[in-house]
C-alpha cells in the first residue's frame, strides 16, 4: 500500500505548466507540515514537502490556492532513479497528489496577511 495524507500550508504559489505534445496540466508547489512532536529545545519542527498534481486538479490549484493556503493532500510516493554527471545512481522522492482539498475559504486573489 502506498498512501500518504498530509495537511499543511503552501509555502509558495503553485507553478502550472503543460506537458509538451500532450497538453497535460501539471502543478508543483510545496507545503509546510508541522511534526507532531517537539525537538529537544521544545520547539515544533516543520517539514517542507514538494507536491506534484496533474490534470484538472493542477489547474484548480493554480487558480484557487496560493501561498499560505491550508490544504489536505491525498497522495502516493514516487521514487525516481537517475544518474548524475559522475555516473552515480541517485534517487528522488516525490509526493504525487491524487486529491487536493482546500481547507480555508480564502481566494487566491485576496490579500494574505
Polypeptide structure, described:
With 113 residues, the protein is mostly beta strands. The protein contains one helix and six strands, in the order E-E-E-E-H-E-E. It has one helix at residues 56-64, and strands spanning 4-10, 15-18, 25-38, 44-54, 70-83, 89-102. A five-stranded mixed barrel has the order 1-3-4-6-5. Strand 2 (15-18) and strand 3 form a beta hairpin. The longest helix has 9 residues, at 56-64. It is globular, with a radius of gyration of 16 Å. The mean pLDDT is 91.
Q: Gist?
A:
This protein is mainly beta and 113 residues long. The chain is built from one helix and six strands, in the order E-E-E-E-H-E-E.
Core attributes:
single chain; 113 residues; mainly beta
Largest sheet, strands/sense/barrel:
5 strands, mixed, barrel
Which oligomerization state do the chains in this entry correspond to?
Answer: single chain
Q: What are the low-pLDDT stretches, counting only 5+ consecutive residues below 50? A: none
Secondary structure class reads mainly beta
Mean pLDDT: 91
> What's the alpha carbon Rg, rounded to whole Å?
16 Å
Number of helices: 1
Global geometry? globular
Helix content: under 10%
User: Looking across the biggest beta sheet, what order are the strands in?
Assistant: 1-3-4-6-5
What order do the SSEs take from the amino end to the carboxyl end, as H and E? EEEEHEE
Number of strands: 6
Distance between the termini: 39 Å
Strand content: over 45%
Amino acid at each position: 500500500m502506498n498512501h500518504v495524507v498530509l495537511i499543511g500550508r503552501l509555502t509558495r504559489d503553485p507553478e502550472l505548466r503543460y506537458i509538451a505534445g500532450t497538453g497535460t496540466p501539471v502543478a508543483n508547489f510545496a507545503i509546510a507540515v508541522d511534526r507532531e512532536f517537539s525537538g529537544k529545545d521544545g520547539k515544533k519542527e516543520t517539514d517542507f514537502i514538494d507536491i506534484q498534481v496533474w490534470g484538472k486538479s493542477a489547474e484548480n490549484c493554480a487558480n484557487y490556492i496560493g501561498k499560505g493556503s491550508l490544504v489536505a493532500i491525498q497522495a502516493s510516493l514516487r521514487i525516481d532513479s537517475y544518474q548524475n554527471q559522475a555516473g552515480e545512481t541517485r534517487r528522488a522522492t516525490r509526493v504525487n497528489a491524487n486529491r487536493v482539498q482546500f481547507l480555508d475559504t480564502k481566494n487566491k486573489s485576496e490579500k494574505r496577511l
